[in-house]
Amino acid sequence: MIFKLVGDGRPYPEHGLSHREWAQIPPRQVRLDTLITTKAVLDLHSLLAKDSTFYGDLFPHVVQWRGEFYLEDGLHRALRSALHQRSVLHARVLDLPSEG
């Protein structure tokens, strides 16, 4: 098993962070088997591209909400880590408070 669950969509509320705001969050290690994906489909061109992170953040974006870790951006990076037999990756983690 690579991920905890393959999801399709974001169950958490909209956080509204811009790319610049994400860049302010320091990366930390996250275990791949704790992540729930928010995309069920992966583009193989993105996975196999040598420059796939050239135009985006080097670190995946993860939202921690209600005790779960949702992989919001960086699915191809996470899968590439798994293919290299790594169990963790460095990601920017936003701790989103539960409402209520």
TrEMBL record:
Organism annotation: Streptosporangium subroseum
UniProt protein name: Transcription regulator of the Arc/MetJ class
Pfam families to which the protein is assigned, alphabetical: VapB
